[in-house]
Amino acid sequence: MTLFLSAREAYRQQQNTTPNSEPTKTNSYNTGYQAVLDDPKQQSRGYEYVMAFPTGINLLVEQFDLAEDLILETNCYNLPFMEFSFAVIGDDESEMIPAGQNFIATYFDLDREIPGSGLYWRGGQRILLVEVGINPQEFFCRHEVSGLDFLPKSLQLYLETDNISFLNYFRMGQTTPEMQIILHQIVNCPFHGLIKDIYLQAKCLELMALKLEPDTAGERELMRSRILRGNDINQIYHAREILIRDFDNPPSLLELARQVGLNDYKLKIGFRQVFNTTVFGYLYAHRMEKARKLLMSQQMTIKQIAKIVGYECPSRFAVAFKKRFGIQPSQYLDRFIVAKNT
């Protein structure tokens, strides 16, 4: 049996989002929600808890002790969105993040129309996930845009220009001992009320600073390197935009290099340095994530989804999907439907 938990439904119930109602207060002045896992067999337990502060910081904590697999339907968020996600205990298999690692990601062009997005947690393990989320436009644009050069390049470009699409930024890294201490301080916060709110927001800001600085320092180092110059970085981001835009019929490596004005060697080396993966490794991951969300929307057949993400042959799509998520797309869909209807 696969368990199912809808954080989205918990949010709707606890916020009382009717036209004439005010959001339910869950702490002294922040709003949020808690979704508690209900296992009929009483073998698994856990919860997802979100605190949303008026400063624009959102803190999410997931703790589960799972005897069986769990599909967690996540709550919607408004775009643009930037998240700092830390897998403390247990492997985040939906996003391919093992325990002890973390990622930073921005979402400016996510498909809003796809419902049912969520996470898959494998049974037989403990889970502890901590995530900090912000609206980057609101959070960072309190400062002068000209002073944003300490931020990752893709985020700078978005904040400086309204006409650039496909600027989602993703960077995975190892969770350092300093980060681990802060994560456990968040989960085991000793305070209550207003003092708790102040304490948790300060810890969220510490995590953001510790995660942003190595990434931006790395980009500054790339700009000083012999292989890549400042304009080369922009062209590599442009190559990523083309890949996402034409993911169903992508250009060859040589054609992509020609379109962005780089030679293929510099594109290959630069793409790995900037995005920590190959050109087509990035494309493959983007295709599979798109396919997973389309499956969970339950609006298309597997054959239709395969074609949308660039596979004319459904069997080849099934092989690629299993390689990414460890399960056939038909099995993934069956488990999601059964869990959601249980």
Describe the structure.
The strands form 2 sheets. Strands 2-3-4-9-6-7-10 form a 7-stranded antiparallel β-sheet. The protein has a 3-stranded mixed β-sheet with strand order 1-5-8. It has helices at 7-15, 136-140, 153-160, 177-187, 193-224, 230-245, 253-260, 264-275, 279-297, 302-308, 314-325, 329-341; strands at residues 3-6, 31-36, 45-52, 58-66, 70-73, 81-89, 101-107, 118-121, 125-134, 170-174. It has 342 residues and is of the alpha+beta class. A hairpin with an 8-residue loop joins strand 2 and strand 3. Helix 6 (230-245) crosses helix 7 and helix 6 (230-245) packs across helix 8.
User: Span between N and C termini?
Assistant: 9 Å
Compressed to H and E, one letter per element, the order equals EHEEEEEEEEHHEHHHHHHHHH
- Ranges with pLDDT <50 over ≥5 residues? 18-30, 111-116, 162-167
* Number of helices, counting only DSSP H or I runs of 4 residues or more: 12
What is the β-strand count? 10
How much β-strand is present in the residues?
Answer: 15-25%
Helix content: 40-55%
Q: What Rg is obtained from the alpha carbons, in whole angstroms?
A: 21 Å
What labels would you give this structure?
342 residues; alpha+beta; seven-stranded antiparallel β-sheet; three-stranded mixed β-sheet; 12 helices; 19% strand; globular
